[in-house]
Amino acid sequence: MGRVRDRIADKRVLGLVKAFLRAGVLTEDGRHQGTITGTPQGGILSPLLANIALSVLDEHFTTKWEALGSQWMRRRRRRAGEPIMRLVRYADDFVVMVHGTRDDTEALWDEVTAVLEPMGLRLSAEKTRVCHIDEGFDFLGWRIQRQNWQGRTGKKAVYTYPSKKSLLSVMDKVRSLTRRSQHPTLAVLLRRLNPVLRGWCNYFRHGASSRSFNYLQNFVFWRIFRWLRKRHAGLNTNTLVRRHLPDWKVTDDGIDMFQPRAVAINRYRYRGTKIPTPWTSQTPGPAAPAA
User: Which of 69, 141, 208, 247 could link 73 by a cystine bridge, Cβ 3.0 to 4.6 Å?
Assistant: First the structure.
């Protein structure tokens, strides 16, 4: 709350935030239960306050980055073997990228712990780990990993593509929507299914996602095919395709199945801090490091 007061002077807003924190929660049996600390899981205030609280990390790593000097000085320090690190954070998820040894990275555990302790926060031992970029890691639904550059022997590049967990998640949503007798017509099913596919593909269209899109489209097509076979159990395959899948195209009542394979891939490459942001701050404050 002290950090909130540094940026917000309106006592009505501060009162609303404090009231939200003291509101408590409803238990499964409908009873009210008070809360001593923290915000309700899934509450709209949780990511906002996490963003404010974890800004101490932004300030800490920004100070370390600026202390390294100019770009030329940072390159010189890297050649000399000094560890160079940069923070990328989104709400309460963050990654610290380190150019150095594993010992340099392991030392960050105590450093980050010391920065978070005054805010009453601590690292999650289950969700925090140290890994090499060749090993790869998941972040915000993406799999980030350095692999052999396609078509270039001996060359390596860092690829970002949908994680297995993200792909399985959207597949589970497709399964739940294509259960038997859940929708009266194919058009109704497509109205429910298309927004799910469109939203998922729009999020992941900025990475190396073409294989994932192809896999997802094939999966969705055959789920709909099985859904049609169950609804029209008396038809053989040829009759089913002729009546409900003309030219093997999923369409009904003027509604076509969204095609993940047709989504254009627009990757961000080597742009770093040059990527423009539409958000401009009206009040002075600490600058967050760019991804």
Answer: 69
